[in-house]
Amino acid sequence: MRIALLCALALLVASASCARRAPADRADTPGDATAATIASPDADANGANDAAEPERAPLAGFPLQMDLVGPSDEDGGGAAKTRTSTKLGVVAVPLGAREPRPIMVALHGGSDHPEWACTAWRGITNGYPFVVCPRGVGASDAALGWSSPADTKARVARAIAAVKKIFGATWVREAPVVLLVGFSMGATQAALLAQGDPRTYARVALAESAYAPEPVMTFAGPWGAGGGERALLLCTTKGCEAPYRNAARNVAAHHGRARLNIAGTSEHGMWDEVVRSMRRDWPWLVEGVAGWETYSPPVEDSPLPGKTETFDPR
User: What is the largest CA-CA distance in the chain?
Assistant: First the structure.
């Protein structure tokens, strides 16, 4: 009897001791992820929680800039029709990205190269997006140009399709607005494409087409009426400033916002000084655009060259 009573008292003490320790075993201290998961009110009906998504490995295994190759139009006739491959352009790849990145389209100038366009605009954007640089019209890489907005639109579509085929939804961020930029002859084409599809190309950068400024000077009406938002205009020569300033005023008159970046090089080209000058205004151009949320400009070790004029809606 005495032994039974002692056993009962021992059990009672052990039970009370465990009850006192139980609150201390809960993870009320910061950083105890396991206990926080167990106590989560978001657990499903079975008391389980979704496992945390593992951190994505950075985008790697591709060159910094790669050729885009795809099928050309069918050649020949009848049973002799064949499919041949052709150069579609190049793409600057956002190596090191850990999340899907947006596509932007860059149109090269006349007698220019898509490789040069991608190099310049990649520098301006700090390597953040997929910079898709379609190849223009021409049998020789030394004499490329653009023929018509319809043809350019088709070339842009083929180049984008090639990028999406390579990288897929894993790395390409689909977004309603696609940044469209162009230099020289490419700027005239970009202005025409933008006015034809202002909702897709609501943000544009048009650079140095003063030799044929009319498309840049007149695109703002249909572009602004259709949803165009911001236009960044770039001058690298003195002759560009007057017509492009008028183009910026026209954007503002049609309820858009414009900036005129005057790089001050006095040379027709996307030189390093031009690239650095454009970095000043690029954050403004992409502000609020889906897919650009994590973009950050490069840290500069010296003041940026050039100057910027701002034109607000009136």
Answer: 112
